[in-house]
Amino acid sequence: MQKEIRIGTRESQLALWQANLVKDLLAAQGFATTLVPIKSEGDIDLVTPLYEIGVQGIFTKTLDIALLNNRIDIAVHSLKDVPTQLPKNIIQAAVLERGPVKDLLVYKQDTAFLEQPGYAANVATSSLRRKAQWQRRFPQHQIHNLRGNVNTRLKKLAEENWDAAIFAAAGLERIHLRPAQSIELDWMLPAPAQGAVVVVCREDDAFCREACAPLHHTVTALCTQIERDFLRILMGGCTTPISAYAHIEGDTLLFAAELSSLDGLTFLETHRQVPVQQAADLGKTAAEEILAKGGDKIVAAIRDAK
Where does the Porphobilinogen deaminase C-terminal domain lie (predicted)? Predict the structure, then answer.
């Protein structure tokens, strides 16, 4: 009898959507699977801002422990939530083809407040990256902390006296919750690996590695690895406003990235275009360039502010 693959997942609607996507893809390959929902620390504390929790791996740690304890065989994560250094004995089994990458502004009435000089709009997000970029563009606006899964955050926006909140497009669109009153923030640079889903397994589990191999999307894997290399070299996470986006057009890989101060006023950015065949180390070299230009001082200032 063939082994049944136990798929570990968080309990949110979005996490379950991602896990069911992996379940369906494995079923198409002829594998038997079952879902094992597990609550993460990040789902339990919905009040404390992520950057105050010591967030590295907060949405993945519980699943990692379940994986290492053999309660599950694979775990499915939003790749942007995964620390750049995986725990010992856990490896990446597959990176799925990327979904929507951009951020969305979900507004309650209209977007007129974006054009009103001096108007102190109330905008919600728990992301330091989004906060920094938003305050650079709209310094007069007030930023409010917004935690929880997609459904919880939409409910909170409806209840509070806020003008708008910022969400990842992938999260809303995958579970068909994108409101009509939303716009894509073309100017906002996304988080490294935003919109991508990763499957991890135990390093010694050859069966699951082989089962997941056909799910791997090499273009998404390359682009997200470059973005995560940029993040890793800058030693960032949800506690540092770091943005990065790589994509391929023809035979060229285009990369844009940024390191920002907490208030968004001080920032260093890079834009590069290289042949795809020469792109493997791009995230690392771009991050080293940022550090050499003064990024080390921005990172030090953020650490001192904690």
Answer: 222-291
pTM of the model: 0.91
The DSSP call for residue 111 is S
For tokens 């795809």, name the residue. Answer: 276
Give every CB contact of residue 105 below 8 A, 6+ residues apart in sequence: 111, 123, 164, 165, 166, 182, 183, 185
Question: For residue 268, which of 278, 258, 276 has the smallest C-alpha distance?
Answer: 258
251 given a catalytic annotation: no
pLDDT per residue over 44-78, tens digit each?
Answer: 444 444 444 344 566 788 999 999 999 999 999 99
Angle at 95 between CA 78 and CA 228, to 5 degrees: 70
The count of domains in the chain is 3
The label of the residue with tokens 């919880």 reads: 152
Choosing from 43, 64, 73, 81, the catalytic residue is 81
